[in-house]
Amino acid sequence: MTRDWTPPWPLDLALVLTPLRRGPADPTYRAAPDGSFWRTSRTPQGPGTLRVVVGRDRSEVRAQAWGPGAEWLLDGLPALLGAADDPDALTPRHRLLAITRHRRPGLRLTRTGLVLESLIPSVLEQKVTTDEAYRAWRLLVRKYGEPAPGPMTGLYVVPEPRTWALIPSWEWHRAGVDDKRASTILRAVRVARRLEEAVTFAPEQAQRRLELVPGIGPWTSAETIQRSHGAPDALTVGDLHLPGIVGYALAGDRDADDAAMLELLAPYAGQRHRAARLILLSGRVPARRKPKMPRVDIGLL
User: Buried (b) or exposed (e) across 57-80, using 16+ Cβ within 10 A?
Assistant: First the structure.
């Protein structure tokens, strides 16, 4: 199935879709040499693969989809590429944000309309390095997911909730996932239907529903809602690096904590996640002065 769509604004596919990628070897996502982007999803209608590419004139988007979820993916194409987003809702109060927004006119916040596919990798990213989380996601999806429909080899669709629930404890261990994160995922997939219902809620209400699951806190719920809802105000609180980056960019304070970050971003209430993304895209980040979090592969223990 195919769909052509012309967005009435400048579109940068990489900027919009990259937050959905979990590492360079994510089995559910691929950026191809021809400029196209591929991603897989387990939609309410079943597994599907979507390929998106911008035409030669840089205005029209051509999308192709395969599998039982193809129609659902094509129907959601505009929202995925930011049609429901409003970048003009943010009024820059800092020169850095104004310059970055001017240089990145194609930035829009994606909205997938799916909760679990963003929630599970967000749980895997709790309290570990990104490399560890990406490795766990890659190993588990490749082993327990299913090959994606369509012509692109090497892509997989995330497992069904029941399949996640049946993964044995030693496989979580081999993937480097500790009992706490594995247990959180198991609790989430047992109420997968109720969590997916949250996609129809306002972002704040959706976060509250996700946080009813033990092990899911504000950090994880925000990381999920940013993608499932395209929530412009779902600021990630509790992150190891973000407060220092925001503090350094806006006030020269690389030691800023969450409270300082929230104070600095208070003028952007309703748009704090968008403001943080613009800061990250600005490239104004403090030089590293501490060693990275040590990586511990529990699969070798």
Answer: eeeebebbbbbebbebbbebbebb
CA distance 152 to 36: 12
Within 10 angstroms of residue 180's Cβ, the number of other Cβ atoms is 12
CA distance linking residue 96 with residue 42, whole number of Å: 39
**pTM of structure:** 0.93
Confidence of residue 288 (pLDDT cuts 50, 70, 90): confident
Determine contact, residues 189/165, Cβ cutoff 8 Å.
yes
The CB-based long-range contact list for 210-219 (8 Å cut-off, 24+ gap) reads 210/115, 210/119, 213/184, 213/187, 213/188, 214/184, 214/187, 215/123, 215/180, 215/181, 215/183, 215/184, 215/187, 215/188, 216/119, 216/123, 216/184, 216/188, 219/126
pLDDT tens per residue, range 210-245:
999 999 999 999 999 999 999 999 999 999 999 999
Exposed, middle or buried: residue 144 (CB in 10 Å: 0-12, 13-18, 19+)?
A: middle
d(CA 23, CA 236): 19
Q: What percent of the chain lies above the pLDDT cut of 90?
A: 92
Q: Which of 53, 6, 7 shows the shortest CA–CA distance to 31?
A: 53
Q: 42 has which bridge partners?
A: 47
Instruction: State whether residue 167 is helix, strand or coil.
Output: coil
